[in-house]
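=== Structure Prediction Worksheet ===
Name of assembly: unnamed complex
Input type: mixed (protein and possibly other molecules)
Chain count: two
Listed entries:
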Amino acid sequence: MRYLPKSQSERREMLDAIGAKSIETLFETIPAKYRLREPLKLPGPLSEMEIIDYFKARTAENSRGYTSFLGAGVYQHVRSVVTDALVQRGEFLTSYTPYQAEISQGTLQAIFEFQTLMSQLTGQEVANASMYDGSTALTECVLMAERVTHRHRVLVAKTVHPEYREVLKTYAKHVGLQVEEFGFTSSGQVDLGALRANSLNEAAAVVVQSPNFFGVLEKLAPVAEAAHAAGALLIDCVSEPLSLGVVQPPQEADIVALEAQSFGVPPSYGGPFVGVIATREKFVRQMPGRLAGEALDGEGRRGFCLTLATREQHIRREKATSNICTNEALYALVVTIHLCLLGKEGLRELAAQNLSKARFAQEELRKIPGVTFPFSGTTFNEFTVEFPRPAKEINQRLLAEKIIGPLALAKYYPEHPNRALVCVTEVTPRAEIERLAASIRKILAAN
Amino acid sequence: MNEKHTHGDGSSATKRIKKAGRHVSQSEGLIFEKSVAGKRGIELPPLDVPAVDPAKALGAEFARAGVEGFPEVSEIEVIRHFTRLSTWNYAIDLGMYPLGSCTMKYNPRVNEFVARLEGLATEHPLQPDEVSQGCLRIIHDLQKCLLEITGMDAASLEPVAGAQGELTGLLLIRAYLESKGDARKKVLIPDSAHGTNPASVVIAGYEVQNIKSNERGQIDIAHFREFVTGDVAALMITNPSTLGVYEENIAEIAEILHSRGALLYMDGANMNALAGVTRPGDFGVDVMHLNLHKTFSTPHGGGGPGAGPVMIKKILEPFLPVPIVTEANGRYALDFNRPQSIGRVRAYCGNFGVLLRALAYTLAYGPVIRQATEDAVLNANYIRKHLEDVFDLPYNLPSMHEVVFSDARQKKHGVNTMDIAKRLIDYGFHPYTTAFPLIVPGALMIEPTESESREECDLFIDAMRSIAAEAETNPELVKTAPHSTRVGRLDEVAAARRPVLRWQPKQNLDAQKHLGPHEKTLVVPTA
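=== Predicted Assembly ===
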């Protein structure tokens, strides 16, 4: 087997050195009746070429040749071969968590740079590196707010990503955390009246998302004011962080849960992604997840090491801030390299291109009789449309035209069967936007 | 290697270090320190629609001028920056990574290649099942392989790390017991367990009850019976234990739990000792998780990503997280209609890119996976045999995939496990796991995995023996190691007391001039 660096005779010699008659004797502590006598029924062994063939065959069963208008927390954006070449360096790819700082300075410095980039992007003072993804980052933010405020109730906007809310509910169920939801208005933004009507006094946090699941930017200041007046924290969730290239950072929020997939990480059918928590310095000791900090050695040389480990499970066990251990470090590195390449100007241009494309798509769809826009709020690269018929039906027809249509919101909001979430990014060609509009026009006219 | 090469550790070490020599490594500041306005590393194709002015489109309320402090560097500078940083890291691709309990094995390159294929890397998790058959089949095929390897009945591949797998498994236990009318209160955890175990138990709403290992490092059956009262939901056990020893009474432990209505959870962190040789499903385990970034070779990447599939017995199936992948007549689908489900543990379908790599690994071995397990156990025993006369072995039971020594003998010379670990760096190795498991004071936890050749094992043995000798003859040399790295031991205590967690532009630092020379960045007050 090509991955195993031993010949049969070497194995024999090593057994002799140990004084073992056969390899079997090394497994004698396992009761004989539980030791397998037959080889496992597994496909393989396959050569490298056969493995590639297997996976290439699978690519043909997916969406190749289709144009997609899906977003909803997972975005197709430019990726650079530079990033991919760098993260495939074995020294990054095949290294462990950098507990041994002296031989992990590369990873540690990159983590420090990641923390800096995420702080700058979100307008927060500190950021961790990293959480599993946006959904679990949000959940951990809520648990963090619970620790900070010693309160056990959280108010979550229905405009927050529905799958993020589902994850939060799974985690909240057995830790005595009460999750309540509040609605939105015709602007597509959170209903401040409904929020204020709720008693906020016992709330640990108010949770919103901006741009929210409908693509609409939230006005954070009044939400923060309402939350803070009642002693609650404001948590803002960002699932399209590219927006922060042209949109004000959530400085009013006390904690930010961010999904960084947009920055160079492929959609990869849902993961691995990169979650981040950014917050105010005063809350850092309640924040879960890895942190790299600057440190000096005996000769005064600058280096970096993992720090504030007393928050973590390997030290605190059941009293830790979270059970997280393995995180998404390699993808945090992808994000770091990608953002360094883009830089200040590139990020802004990329974000502006998204805005332009989405505005163009909106205008194209607006021309179609029967297509309306249910929300009046300002959007970035996603927006909600309403068809005169169920979106699911339209999407089924679009699929025949090799278009993966906008996400039918009925999956999460059954009360709105005709609504769909359109996502357009810099990689969506104008011609495909026009083809989407023409196809929808045709489908609607056909009935 | 240059024969005239010296150690460069400023010592008169008696033994020449075979595995490593010094070479020049490039210095490199923070990317922010290299930034000069007006540069960039990516150029975008021209916009093919009318350009919108963000300030106008978003209005004063939302528009942002730019991200203050973001770096401005060219492509070549980015390449050099990160290439230079990379050379400061140790990696499996450079040599043995004997971290006990971490299973740092070879990460096959073909796995990276297939994970990047157009048509896999590009797929959106919310696209219709009709155009996701390839992705769904990959998940389903991997699931079938993992069920065969573990001997379990059903699985969820949604958890994205071992710790999340643990939590998911515990939530399944809770849901099952609740459906029987009583969720119970406690989960038993041996004192040798990983820290994630107790941390996960708490999130699942259970109390942790620690149980002491006996003098052999095993669960004491007589004592154990007393512990399993009516309010115990489960035992969470790692097998082989973190001592690298098979829990000899595991089947009996399972019987005791089952007879009292409790379940057996197995942390599969050490599955690399068992794959192809024995199956947890056969010896009484009800629920377990696997670490695909350990046993199934997906790269650790400096701290992730991972994946922590949960494997279960039939009785727990109704409660699995949504969605699950189903297959009927060769068509695959995501099933969300699971009324008794514990809910979601992560958005979308988990870490598909990790699952895919694990499948590539499994296909490469097929049933020969047993050979990998045998080689892993062979390597651990070979190392044990050659070191047990110089290092203290506190638990003398047969080792499986890892061996745990203590620093008891070297302590007499004032040298502890961390010192030995740091000195190992000078010999060209990554340290083993130090100070874990907690039941071994001053532990040296060594897991070579199957990926090491005899030559590499011999070099490691030589290094360890040489350090043991140095501990006696020149303890200062060991205590001040490493001597060959870019930075020496860092003052982690000071770093934690006044954490500097980000770079700040110079003008912000100037505003803090009243602080000491090393405190001129963001300072976090002690809680």
